[in-house]
Structure prediction request, 85 residues.
Amino acid sequence: MSVPNSRRPVVSQHHRKCARLIVCDGLSVSEALLQAGYSPKQAKKSLNTVRRTVGLRFALRHEFEKHEIPPPPNVAAVIYGSVNG
Prediction:
C-alpha cells in the first residue's frame, strides 16, 4: 500500500501561522514561534527549531515566495540549505 504525496511535508496550522508572522508581520523567529503556540523552550532555540521542522521550513519558503520577499540571509540558509548568491 503506497501513501499518496508521501514526499510532501505535513504543514500544520502552527507552521503556517508562524511563517505568516515572520514574513507579513516582521516578527523575529523567536517571537513568531511563541505566538504560534510553540513552547518558550522551543522558541528560544529559534532557527534550530526551524532547521529541524520540515513543515515549518516548507511554510516559510512558501510565504516568502508567495509575497515575493527575499528572506534574510540567516533564514535563507536554513530554508534553502545554503545562502543564495
Notes: The chain has six helices and no strands.
